[in-house]
Structures are given as C-alpha cells and as structure tokens.
Amino acid sequence: MTTHVEALAPGAFATADPRHWPDVARVPRTPLKAAVARRLLRRIARRRGLRVELPNGRLLEPAPAAAPVLRLHRPGAFFHRVGMSGLIGFGESYQAGEWDSPDLVGLLTELATAPETLVPTGAQWLRRLYVKRPPAGQLSTPDNARTNIHRHYDLSNELFALFLDPTLSYSSALFPTDPAGAPVASWENLAQAQHRKIDRLLDLARVGAGSRVLEIGTGWGELAIRAAARGARVVSLTLSEEQLALARRRVAEAGFANRVEVRLCDYRAAEGEFDAVVSVEMIEAVGRPFWPAYFATIDRVLAPGGRAALQAITMPHERMLASSGTYTWILKYIFPGGQIPSTEAIRQATARHTSLRVAARDSFGPHYAQTLRLWRERFTERADEVAALGFDQVFQRMWELYLAYSEAGFAAGYLDVQQILLTRPEPSR
Q: N or C: which terminus of the chain has fewer CB atoms within 10 Å of its end residue's CB?
C-alpha cells in the first residue's frame, strides 16, 4: 500500500513557530551550495530513474511515468536547505511542505538502496560542506541520557497509543509467514505478532518459573508482564517518566505488581544478580561510546550460567563506521544521542569488554518493514486525533517521514533487526 501525503500550498509553513521549529521556519540562503545540490539531484534522478516533478509541470530530468516520484513544490527552498545541510535539510524541507511524494516509502526505499552510491566517489569531499558532528549535549552520558529519552518517549503516552497496538509494543513484531517466507502482516494480527516476538526472546533467555529477570528498557511493560506470567520475577529499568507511570499501572492491572518492579534508573546503575537479562531495541539509544558500559553492565549483573537476550536494530558494519559521529536528521529530531550498531560492533564490544560472547542470532528485517507500515498507516489515518493532542502539522509531517524513512531502510535491506543471545563460554577442560 502506498502512502499519499497531501500536497501543501507553497509557504504553508512560513508561520511555523520559530521557537519550536527554528530551522523549519527559516529557509537558508546559500546560492552556490544550492546549485551543487541541484546538480547532484539531477545526477541521482538520471542514475536511479527518479521522476523529479517541478511546479510548472516540467521534469528535472526525463523519467518514466512509473518511476518513484519526488514532487517539488518549492524547489528553490528545497535546494537551499539540502545544499546547506544535506539530509537534515532534506528532512526539514519535507516538514515545511516543500516536497512530497504519492509513494513516500517507495521513493525513500530507492534512495536507501546502496546509499553510498548516491554521491559520486570523486565528490565525497562535498560532505564536508554540510556534515556536522552531534552536539556534545546529546552524548548519552548519565546526565544527558534522561533528557534524550524524554525528548522521544515522553512526548505523550496518548500519542503512542494512537498508532501502536493494544500491547503498546514499540519494536518489531514477528509475524507468521507465507510459503515463500514473507511476513503476513495486518492490523488484526499485530498484537499476536508482538507476543510472538516477546515469547521468542524470553525463550531465548530461558525465562521460566522462578527466573530472576532484568529488563533494560521497559517500554510500556508488555515484556515484563509476559515474563511474570511465566512465573518470573522482573526488575525493569526505564528513564522515561511517562512510560514508568503507565507500565506500573499496566503491571498492576495485569495482577503482577508482586512480581514486577519498574524502576526509574539508568542501566549503568543496575544492581543485583539475575538469571536472565533481556533488552528490546534499547542498544540503539545507548550511543557508540557507551556500548562497552552497556555490555559490561549486563556481564556484571548476569549470574553464572545466565543468558542475555537482546533485540537490536543493526546495519552493515562499513555503513555504521561511515555514519558514526555524523549528525543526522534522525538524531536532530527523533532519537538524540543514538547510534544503530552492526553485528560486528556487538561482537567486538562483548569480546573486548565482557566475558560474554554472541552464541546465536536470528534476523527478521522484513518483519520490521511490515510493522512500520502498520504504524505509519495508523498514524496517518488518525491525523485528526494527533492534532487534537496538540501536535501541529510540522510535527505530523516529521513523524510521517520518520516512520516512512525507517520502513524504507528495512525494505531496502539497509537496516535489519535481530534477536541475539549472549552467553559465557564453558571453560575449557
């Protein structure tokens, strides 16, 4: 299914509140860089077969009618933004309504396929014109981590409830598959697919009656509830005050307040000894400089013979190295302080800083593309309710782009999601 984002009239967001959206309200003026951006888009359109439509009905380059469409409503502003700040400007231009696409995911999937080829090898130096390093204030130190988490997860429990299924699981589901192995995903089976994902992770960690479980990253409590239903005792850590309150309430309503303790606590301050440590899509918020501390914490609290089971978004190692330390649109607006690891980075961090080793892993990236599709469709369908919560059009377009951008990453294979088992090797005899 394609997504159609309504075209906005030129200048529709000229009154965007500069206190909240300073870089969306202001269009930079960089004529030379804008000219470079225009030439680069022409090249990309030719090489990738994109249909770049201009306001006067002309095309930037000849393209077949069925090609992915990038529709420019204010090309001047678009090129100035992209020339000034690259992909950050690309995202801000979308927030401002300066471009759209009748199939946003299809367009972004094409751009996410082999992204290293978008800029010619001889022109890679152009990155220096716009690539910045993340602000020091976003580095996920103990002091900054709560602020980073607050900016995303404390937006509003009601907002997340509008597009998540009743389990309030904000991570990839695991769907049934057809004979060809493709996920069979629908809104009706999403909650069941989330339980399938959780149960497989708990099985991987061998969580059962009497297990002492540490969960790093609470979400809204569904995994802790599922673990408690098996007879486990769970300590769950979160830095989100909104999630803390709702998770505690959901745990109590499920009848497991005596088995689950939800703490407002940084993972680095975890205490106790546990038979199992589980963590679902938390490592991406940790930040590369702190991966050693994250895995060392797991190693420190894991009892002899214990097992750690993680669900992690991953990317190819070379792309991770190339993007590490780069300030992106996602870091600026969605997940400050984050970094998606590679499988190799996880292997290196555990080997160098812990006694743990990767014992097994299973990837299911296409299932995340479908999970995100369902979230995106639900979010756009309920736009009026999002607005009623106080989120303006700039925010809504930001989240539409975030969900579509993420879906495209998994659809293109640029991103993957894996469940990873960490154990301590048996001592050699």
A: C
The mean of the pLDDT values for the chain is 92
State the pLDDT at residue 419: 98
For 57-96, write each residue's pLDDT tens digit.
Answer: 899 999 999 999 999 999 999 999 999 999 999 999 999 9
Report whether pLDDT(350) > 50.
yes
List pLDDT tens digits, range 243-267: 999 999 999 999 999 999 999 999 9
